[in-house]
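Memo to structure team: turn this sequence into structure tokens by end of day. - J.P.
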Amino acid sequence: TGTLAKETGSTTTYYIDGDEKRPIATGDAFDANNFNWSYLVTAASLSGYTDGASITGAETGLTTVSGTSSDESAGGNVTVALAASTPSATTIISDTVQTGQGLVPMVTVNFTAPASGDVTVTNLKYKRTGISADADVLDLYLYDGMTRLYQGGSLSSNYATFNSSVGLFTVPAGTTKAVTLKIDLNQNTSAGKTMGFELTEVTTKNDATVDGSLPLTGNLMTTASVTDMGYVNTTHGNVPTSAQTVNPGEEDFEIYKLGIQANDQDLQLEYLKLTLLGSIDVDDIENIEMTVSGTTLAAGTINSDRELIFDLTGNPYLIEKGQNKILSFRGDVAKGSTRNFRFSVEYSSDMVVKDKNYGVYVIPIGNGTADSTWSALKSSPSTHVYTINEGSLAISLDTSSPTENVAASATNIKLGTWKFEATGEDVKVKTLKVVSDTTGGAGLDNGKVMVNGEQVGSTTNLTEDIPISFSFGSSFIVPAGESVLVDVYADIKNTSGTNITSGTVRVSLDAASGNAQGQASLTSIDAPSSTNNGTVLTVSASTLTLTAYSAYGDQNMVIPAVGAKVASFIVQAGAYEGVTIDTINIDNATSGVMQNMKLMTESTQLGSTKATLTSTTETDNVFTVNLPLAANESKVIDVYADIKAGIDANSIDLDAGAVGTTAVTGSTVYHNNSSFGGDADVSTQTMTLTTGTITSAADGAKPDADIIIAGTSKVLMHAVKYTATNEAFTVTKMKIDQYGASASDSVGRVILEYKNKAGATVEKYTYLNSTSTADFTGLDVYVPKDGSATVKMYIDVPTISAGADSGDLPKLLYIYDQGFSATGESSNTVETDDSGAAHLSGNAMIVRKTKPTVTLVSLPSTVLTDGTKVISKFTITADAAGPVYFKELNWTYATTSGVDITDSTIYLYRSGQSTALNSADSLSGDASPSIEVALTTEEEIAAGSSQTYELKGTITGSQANRSFSTNLKESASAATAGTSTTYANLAVYETGGLLWSDGADTDRASDYADCHYVKSLPTDSQTMTQ
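Reply from structure team:
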């Protein structure tokens, strides 16, 4: 059988048979010989094969190809094929003196195991090809990627053999392993030689059938010889230089040292593997780092094969030519008492170093010699090792040990916590002595020892001032490098079982001798070597505290009210013992004022609702509850009730009290240690009884008067702000008038916009009725208690063709005392008058078909000189709704003494044009000098467009420190008219500087006579100075 193969980048498929490659001429020839594309192998080069005859049709004997399954069952068969990643033909390098290229990849073969089971390969045989000698190869390796599978195959008479009875490698079932043969090229290998390898034999552990056409041939490499190839000398590998000891627990200890010197070229270290030798376990040394001059290059962990690997391929460490870098390996000696260790670089291939210039790996040279031999870098003799000293046990009072008071008569109370830390080896604690010290001098009941939360040893009484021994057998062992917490518990009772209700208690660990033992060294340890005292703790009685809840202050509360929160207070158990509250008492709550009272903590009701309360303020309303509180726990209790209508009371001032049972001793406890038992005597909040009100006022969002364009939707006309006092309200109805029926045809929809209780924006609309009124019902305007809410009022303006009239003055009027309804949230009272002082009027808007906007433009020159000057420049823009027409413009002007302008020279021009738009002007020189320009023909500015104009005149009398300025004319009311909110004042303002028309009336002359309103003309002066 043969192999199907093609070269990378080529479309020609070959049938490889021995040393010959035969091209397959056509697809028909491929199919005729039952070839299968799935077995095609791609190689970088097939130049090592001789050319054979082309296959043009079916040939007898060509029935199986590389990679096809054998007729045997799938059991243990292994399929072999040349891998697509097999190395391409290239040049490999040898130095004439020092070293050769290392780890040269020669051929890569895919080994595929069947799905039915793993395959273990025990023997591989390769034939050396090309023109070279066995002596040219220094060492051979098998690699799977970066993992070395085997080192030291023998090479003799052109054949390299790898043999291991336990297996060179195993291919897991259903997978493929790509195995690469690598070599170290010997130093002083002459140039021009060729070398390749082909796999000739495969043997498996179970003598499985090998499917595939052998040999599988790699490409030929060509040798080159250089005199300056980089090479490595190593130093300092003999570590330690004598037998030494190290204490367990020592951190940042130097466990190995290695010097690497770069010669002839810059070199980079990409991989280093140390082997752990000695008797310690792989986890006895932790937090290992490889450093150079204090800088960490990489961190590593010793694996189960006792290997410490530093993979730097992603970030190689550069060693420049001539430098000798000392690598220091440091770690924490966590444990391993009495055991020893040292490290070694066992093989040259454990150190992967690349020549930066030639881009090839080099063979490290050991111990500074100038040849290509290698000796493991480790201490010599073998007795030069680090031995870890015996372990120790440190005992200290832990920061978590109790310091607060303890509850009187309590049981199973933690009285002390100690931290036990073992270093170097596991330590067994066989016994501990505990001693008690109490004010009463009668010891403590039921003492016990807990290790990490689990009891060890038996429970026994702690006799006063006498060390009590607790025995643990083998149940208390502190692991090396770790710590455990030891707790001592007892009841707050003396050894006779009598409750301790006051005074102090303390437990301590008494000094002992030889009561602990190192598990590796068997050394006796004192645990502790001197008495280690716990903290003196004060015995405290249980308490129950009740206070008014400060986050809920005095309230104004409307009547009647349903489910009103009439009080809120906090109950809290003492710090050292829990309490179950049995009853809560409320007084100053009578049946004449309230009913249906209940207690709540968050969403949980306590006890039952009291429909009828006591008849007098002196008698408590007693609620039976079952409210457990852990030590120091607190809860907020809220009191709810219905407040009746028509009551005489002006306020509600409830008092509260509580009675409970302590969790440990079962004693009765009263709130605040009250001498009156649980009677309600703690004041809570004052509820002032009142009524809710809602008022209205104009909101700041109410717009000023302005021009509104016919055909515009949702024009803001008015804004009303409601304010609620003492309770929230929901406004459900309101009435809005169009002020002045003559403008009603310019009003379409009337729209309200507001927020409901959920905070969502709501929009409602209706239309004016025959009396020009918009009646709104079904509203849900939410006004929060002691807060406000704004209702914005809009209209849709019809188009002129649909009925709106240019010049109409729509204005909305809010009616405060008609058609209004609001419901109080607490009292459920319906208000039909919002308590406003008057109806609220919006500002009148003026309906126009379009409108102009006037803006100033910078003067061409602001330098005052004699001659014809542009004294005003401006732009008029027509709204997109329609064209704007204008007939006249007016200015005021101001000069300094001596400057004048000639009346007959004042003309208005379109910017950039030379034809004047007026034939004459009217110049007034009175106390308020003005310029009036009446156009010969009205100007039209198309919808949505702009036109810029220039006013020119002849200036005389200019000189230094003189000026001339103009302003588009405004009337005497200009200071207020620009922001006026009444049309009466705006009408005065309209008589100012611009006579214009919106074209709604074909007789535009009347528009000019009426002086259509412009919201604001520019007020800035345009000035020339010298």
